[in-house]
Design brief:
Two copies of one chain form a homodimer. Chain A has 234 residues and is mainly alpha-helical. Helices cover 67% and strands 4% of the residues of chain A. The longest helix of chain A has 26 residues. At the A-B interface, helix 3, helix 4 and helix 7 of A face helix 3, helix 4 and helix 7 of B. Chain A binds a DNA duplex (30 and 30 nucleotides) through helix 3.
Chain lengths: 234, 234
DNA sequence: ATGACAATTAATGGATACCTTAATGGATTT
DNA sequence: AAATCCATTAAGGTATCCATTAATTGTCAT
């Protein structure tokens, strides 16, 4: 997701339309675990909670359902979908694949100095956060980096696709963050990827990010299996 | 998309809810080019056309918009999105990437005889259609084959994702089918892929499908550039 | 004649009212 | 006592209604 407050993430800015507002509000509550896995609410309850009528709620729910965040079943309202170890694994597999493509495309393009700047900025932020052991800032910078990477692919449809995946990925990431002991030194990985892009070596860039993601994913699943009891999953 | 009539494809089966009906109806009209690129209609017009009120129409439009088939802009109703050469290229890039992942996963799994059967059936259908020079049947069989391939990944989220992409992919494919001179002999490609899966050689399988898709994509874009004037693309 | 502003109109976003349907509990029958 | 069926009711699906806002057109002034 975009690091700024456009798109579907975010800080609560008064949105133009109520549907958007409801959408972002519910999304936030799910992503920041205010409404945890399994939380159920009827349309009417959501209306009262959010102070709007059923129309915007219903329309927001359609979008959220497509995002894979909730399930809407007649007579039982919406339900926040569980995110299992399997889900996380599958999500990371997909993200790996899509990001690999993005990086390959980015490396094959002519990038401007401005493009590199966005990557370098994120890289620097990661280093700073890592030195300060600021786990949250690190995660944010990591997210920014990966976002910019995808943006550089110049494949508009791909960017949208990854964006629409962001919610699920974010949930997976946040879930893991809570039990992740130390930030993996992926800062180095990232620097290498940027280098490969700079050299225009698309095959190598793809290789690198694929390895990076796969390592990340296997770390995550390993952690999950260890801490499965702690997490309120499934 | 599933070759049978479940999911979002399809033959017009009387759906349970009006929203579903409207969704499928509009989707069909777009996919089968009854409403071509650039077609515009106000919500009210859609209501009259389909004989329902605005509510189901609006809810269906949200889904269609997410599918990338239409754009809904206030005061101008919905508009069938153009599909440009660039779009087709980008869509194929993404599909290539996702299918590569799917094949890799499939090859790494233990597949049942039943699984292979679904592939073999599609393969056989392709051969028959090819011998009969039945372009339409060939395209259908090709689609079936690729669908089954993805299904064998056992990555539920991936399957859904590709499925939701189906509409756009289908439009790209149909657009191309009209100007495609002869079915590329991808039947051989397919057979090789199935072989690799059978041997459990996931890397090779991935390589093969990636090559297959990339060749297909470049053929398509080449064709598009030649015939750009024929197509009503934007 | 052209541009700007205002009045009109029409389409959307949102609220509400209505109707259909499914879950629940109780009653009746075996 | 258990099972089945019916009645009740609440939730969701759909239609309609209202308010807001943007497009359009017409008029007036420069």
């Amino acid at each position: 997701m975009k690091p700024d407050n456009k798109g579907s993430n975010g800080r609560k800015q008064p949105k133009k339309t109520l549907v958007d507002h409801v959408y972002h509000e519910i999304q936030n509550r799910i992503l920041y675990n205010i409404w945890g896995t399994g939380y159920q609410a009827l349309e009417q309850e959501l209306c009262e909670e959010l102070g709007v009528s059923r129309t915007p709620v219903r329309e927001a729910l359609i979008r959220l359902q497509r995002d894979g965040l909730v399930n809407v079943v007649p007579r039982h309202g919406m339900r926040v979908l569980p995110i299992s170890a399997t889900d996380i694994q599958q999500i990371y597999q997909i993200l790996t694949s899509l990001e690999s493509l993005a990086v390959e495309l980015a490396a094959a393009r002519e990038l401007s100095a401005r493009d590199y700047k966005s990557l370098d900025t994120a890289l620097k932020a990661m280093k700073i956060a890592q030195d300060a052991s600021d786990l949250k800032a690190w995660a944010q910078a990591d997210e920014d980096f990966h976002y910019h990477l995808v943006a550089l692919s110049a494949n508009r449809i791909l960017i949208e696709l990854v964006d629409s995946f962001w919610g699920r990925a974010q949930r997976a990431r946040l879930t893991m963050l809570s039990i992740r002991n130390n930030p993996i030194n992926s800062t180095q990985d990232h620097a290498k990827i940027v280098d490969a892009i700079r050299r225009g070596d698309s095959a190598r860039a793809r290789e690198l990010i694929e390895g990076h993601r796969k390592r990340g994913a296997s770390d995550l699943t390993e952690l999950m299996e260890k801490h499965l009891n702690i997490l309120q999953l499934s």
